[in-house]
Amino acid sequence: MKKRVFCTAAALCMVVSLAACGSDSSKEQNEATEEVVIDTEEALDNDTLEDDAEAEEETEETEDASVDEAEETEEEANTEEDADDTESAENTAEAGYDLADYPADFVNFDDMCFYVNGKKYTLGQVTLQDMIDDGVPFDENDIANAGNNLNKNYQSEGFKIDLADYWAAQVYTFNDTDDNQVTSECYVNEIYLPINRDKTQNVLSFDFPLGLTLEDLEAKAGEPDDTYHYDGDNGYYSDRYTYTHESEKYMHGSSYTFEFQNGVLSYVTIEYIP
């Protein structure tokens, strides 16, 4: 019995010893496992943080690039808009004029004048030769006829003043004497200007803006002596306002004529008859 007990006790001791060893080994393994887990988690955390940092940096770079691109697009759009505005202003004759920059009377029969390169010329006073001598840019073919004869009580053919490519005004001379005269020696009595909205010029000007509206014309010149209105197709319409002054010598008198197409000034004619 003692042997059995001994054997049993020894066995118990061995079991306890083995259990203790197993426990220590498990503990060490658990601690090692925990360290591996901790190290792995720390590594994962570090990788995650690095990935997050890189992702955030990439996001910021993308946002910055988007902002820069948006700013560049906006600047380009503004530049294009400014260019469009500039082109539009250039293609509109005297757009946005200020009435204060012009004389009080747009229609003045005491001084029926126009300006070429800033110099004033008055109908009934200046001769064609005066304008030739001043270097007014006349059409060469027209001015070649300036020495032709002009019969008494006759008006000459037109002489073009070049304003731009394929755009010109015209002046006419008048012989109100009882004898024949050289055309260039007669005074200029009429100027005619078709307004070209697709071109700009700085050669010819008047005591009124070429962007003149009907409302401003009436405000500065009063009611016209004669009006004509025409309604055409596809919404087209025109208005002609004529201001007249009686002649002391002829049945046909002096006049200012303004013609508008769809409310836009298109033709100007000023004629002096003594």
Structural class, judged by helices and strands? alpha+beta
Mean pLDDT score? 79
Largest sheet: 8 strands, antiparallel
Give the CA-CA distance, first to last residue.
165 Å
Helix content: 25-40%
Radius of gyration: 48 Å
Provide a brief overview of the structure:
The chain is α+β, with helices and mostly antiparallel strands and 274 residues long.
Describe the protein in words.
The protein has four helices and 13 strands. By secondary structure, it is of the alpha+beta class. The strands form three sheets. Strands 4, 5, 6, 8, 10, 11, 12 and 13 form an eight-stranded antiparallel β-sheet that branches. A three-stranded antiparallel β-sheet has the order 2-1-9, with no helix packed on it. It is globular and about 45 Å long. The relative contact order is 0.10.
